Amino acid sequence: MGRQPEVALSGRKATALAAAAAAGCALLVLLVAGLPTGYPVNDDAAYHRMVDLWWQSGRPTFIGWNEMTLLGHLAPAVVLRALGAGSLVARQLMIGAGALALTALACGLLIRSGARPGEAMPASLIWLANPLTLLSATCFMTELPQALWCFCWLAAFTAWCRQPRAANAVAWTASAFAAFSVRQTGVVLPLAAAAACLAMRSRRRKTLALAAAVLAADAALWIYRESLPLASIRPLADLAVGLEPATLIATVSRQSAEALATLGLLLIPVAVASLARRGRSSVTLRGAMVAIGVALVLVAAGSRFPFWPNTLTASGLLPDTLPNPRALPPLLTEPAWIALTALAVASLAMLASRALDPARLRDPIGVASLAGVVALIAITAIARSPFDRYLVAVIPLALVAATPAAGDDRRRLWPRSASAVLAVALVASALAVRGLHARQRAVWDAAESQVAAGVPATAIDGGFEWNLWHQPAPFSPEELRDPAQSLAWYESYPFTRLNPVRRLWVGAVPGGWRELSRRRIPGGHELLVLERSRPAAPLWADAGGRDEVRREIRDHILASWERGLVRDPTLAQPPLSVREGDDLVFYWDSYFTNVGLIRRPELMPLANANVDFLLQQVRRYGFVPNANREWGLNRSQPPYLALMVRDVWESGGGGDAAWLTAAYRALQREHRFWTTDELERHTTPIPGLLRYSHHATPAEHAEFYDQVLGPRLRLPRSARLGDKTVLAAAFMAEAESGMDFTPRFGGRCDDFIAVDLNVNLVLYEETFAWMVETLGLEGEPDWRALARSRWTLIRDTCWDDQRGLFMDWDFTRRRHGAVASVMAFQPLWAGLASPEEAARTVASLRLFEHQGGVAACEVVDPPSGRQWGEEVVWAPMQHLVVAGLDRYGYHADAVRIASRFLDTVARNWLDPDPAAAWERGRLRRHRQPGTLYEKYTIDGRVSDDEYAAGEGLGWTAGVYLHALDLVSGSSSSRDQ
């Protein structure tokens, strides 16, 4: 009886004072978090437009799918308009009033449940200490009414249980009725009532009767509205009919475990308080079993990061409120996610230990609140699109469930020593939410600026909230009667019904759009304003016009290359650089440039100079560096030099036998570089098959991270040196593959046996055999036997019979790579594939072919955002595919792909799209007609993925000339 006297002595006065103090603290937190500026959607025009539509139509206009949204958004506007107070401050204070009232109510109920006043006040603030609640409190009352009604119901039900008077019964019934008219609480409350009445057998019949009356009244309401509850009944009905029992159980188990882990994350301050008060005894066997069960389900289900988006968004960990959040890299490393998960599960163990305490389970309040927690999570988990903001309603119930039973003086809810934890949590929550408001306001202002510029609001995709507020669309009568249609509308809007001309975006420019401008927004992001590109209609009215433009581009290429020829025979011919007027030379770029050069006898000196330059690099370094710059000396690029030597020799360039002999000896050194570990780790567990690698130092890793990875992949510059080194080492090998960067290797390039590398080494060995025969050398290795042996290994290892493609082999995980790339056509280009393998590979061409040409990789979900991924068209990929198709007799397919590439180059030659090149938030240049570009997009635009496309690139020109010759020589080319 030690605690009861204190509660009695403090009485109603102490309860009222504690509740008022808690509400005052909540008001202060709300002000810090963003009041009165609050959420940008709370502008006069939006509110008044919604209210006017409501009054004019006689039926509420939905901007969400339920009454809670209506009450949260429109009720303050209606009340304030009636009072004549339309200020933003007044509206925001009314919205925040829900949080103030609930905080005070929580404090009072906790005291009523047995907590001391000094403990109940900070404990009631706990639900504000997680940003998810504070976000709702400072934005709009979409989730607060749900939590408020849960508390009102629990308070009224508790009063009725202790004193079964008619007034208390009416209060409980009214609260339950109101709560059932909104989201998940509709099903939760009857379940909670049924569970609670089991502990109070004397009043079971009355409780069940009241619950039945609430259900009947609520059903009558929905019948009157000619619709069904969209968030509770619809998921239950759909899941019961549409899923097998095993699938249903697995889905509910996984999502319930994820919800419980998220709840543990949200209530970490409570767990810390429990740990501070009780030490080791804060976790009991019951609590540990709950946490272990949740952890096992998460592991079995493969839930790597089981926290639902809003929690992380409101906590400032993910910029989920911005357009296209998938384009942004994760802000936490995988070990950090694992640590966060472990922390959440540990917090859940402490909470469950309190809630499942035997003394608490004998108390009706504890039973009722615990039943509410379980039921609410269960209903949330089986929804088609569960949101963690539904868990806002669980937090107060969980607090009550974790409160020590009344009269139990051995434990306290909140020790004084834990007040510092609460203070830190409140400050962190307020600052995180304030930053989120700043980001969202910047997005909002960018959309409003488009309206101010004369673009209709209905023609702008300004992000989810902006669209819903500026383009409200009432449900049609058919949708109101069919919950499935309403849900489809909600999930697709504004993407299927909205056909915007302008769009706000973060990340790579999507297909069919071009960039107009960009601005920096809080959080280090760049917000792009996009406009729809011109329709993908034929560029030319007839084939003649097409041929004229193609010839114009051909003549430009030839003229620019001829300017690079040295006319004085006494002077050495320099190699053809990547860009005109520069001396930068990339390794594999030179091969694809030579593809065009060797087709023109007058340009053979340039092709020969390219080969001689690369041979000199081998003699100097023992390999061909990535580029003739200091930063390019710690890796190579895909080996093509032997093929270049043979092409030049057979095309009449090169030199005499002495030149070919010297080239053979140099190429043997390069072959040794690739087939041994003398300088880099190229060997793999499968002898004879090789991988890409590098030989960079730790200092070079850090520089590569800062100069390349950070800007291009938007990685934080503030990362630790050790983390930079590890990440850079993984991506450095990808840079040696030439495909920097790509989803092809999953960020682990040096764990893969790459198809293209090994195919090229087979061609090296076949070329060596040709050189030995041409030069009449003796005592040389049996290169043809080595080539046959290596090709057999490639076929046995890299041919994926299930997919019908040559795939890179992950020798660490002993399986083929998850992402197919156009390097699957490398064996066709090399002439090594069997006719059957070629036919199956060609059947998969649809994985890569698009309007603008073939992409480097197949489509992945979510999009990789990498420039050597699923959305970018590169010249070398076009050549490998086109040459491979043509070699195996698929001439029509080759001409079609070549024509697509020619048209893409020609379109942007006449009218480059986008018209401006932006890089790292700054305007790099305005693009002018009459230019070739380094890379293009699958829908035929210039690609600025990772960095702005370079101009006048040699391999684009070389592949263009090859493709033009192929198409021009086809009798059906004019019909393509």
How would the blueprint of this fold be written?
Layout: H1 4-33, H2 44-57, H3 67-83, H4 88-113, H5 117-124, H6 131-139, H7 144-162, H8 166-180, H9 185-198, H10 204-224, H11 233-242, H12 245-266, H13 268-278, H14 285-301, H15 309-314, H16 334-355, H17 358-361, H18 364-381, H19 394-402, H20 419-452, E1 460-461, H21 464-470, H22 477-481, H23 483-492, E2 502-505, E3 513-521, E4 525-532, H24 543-562, H25 587-597, H26 604-621, H27 641-650, H28 657-675, H29 698-713, H30 721-736, E5 752-753, H31 755-775, H32 783-798, E6 799-800, E7 805-806, E8 809-810, E9 815-816, H33 826-830, H34 835-843, E10 849-850, E11 853-854, E12 872-874, H35 875-887, H36 891-910, E13 916-919, E14 922-926, E15 935-937, H37 954-968
Helix pairs in contact: 1-4, 1-5, 1-20, 2-3, 3-4, 4-5, 4-6, 4-7, 6-20, 7-8, 8-9, 8-10, 9-10, 9-18, 12-14, 12-16, 12-18, 13-16, 14-16, 18-19, 24-36, 25-26, 25-37, 26-27, 26-28, 27-28, 28-31, 29-30, 31-32, 35-36, 35-37, 36-37
Q: Mind explaining what this structure looks like?
A:
The chain is mainly α. Among the domains are: 4-436, no CATH class; 437-532, no CATH class. The protein is built from 37 helices and 15 strands. The chain has a 4-stranded mixed sheet with strand order 1-2-4-3. A 3-stranded antiparallel sheet has the order 5-8-9. β10 (849-850) and β11 form a beta hairpin. The chain is elongated.
